[in-house]
Amino acid sequence: xxxxxxxxEKNKKKEKKGFAFTIDVLLALMITFFTFVxxxxxxxxxxxxxxxxxxxxxxxxxxxxxxxxxxxLSDAARGPDEPIASTSLRNFIMQTPPxxxxxxxxxxxxxNEIYSVDKTGCELGGEEYQVAWRSFIxxxxxxxYDFYLVRLSSWYGQxx
Length: 160
What we know:
By secondary structure, this protein is α+β, with helices and mostly antiparallel strands. The protein has four helices and four strands, in the order ααααββββ.
């Protein structure tokens, strides 16, 4: 009889431990659930316009890198001094997607505009536009180098 009373006391202690463990698990599950709800709410709050803005920024920076690596910017910087086709930069801009409008301005080291080209069929400006900058160096001969900046303004427009 004495042994059964001890067993009952042990069982009561085990039940209390189990109850506290259950509360801990429920609390952890509630915290996890609310964390998932908050994260899901944040992920679904992004709008298409916000993502398009990021996409336009990425496209602008990639276009500038491609213009420099392909030599279009150095061709435009040399300009009329050398017999290089000045239409290469304009042709590149015209090959971009029709919904993206662009204006490229080339500035010398004194920040004076020496060349500018717009994508035809686009109205200049827009409410939301991106401006991306890139610097580059043009080598004229073995001892002569010039520093240039290029400014690319881009926005979403309606193709003409």
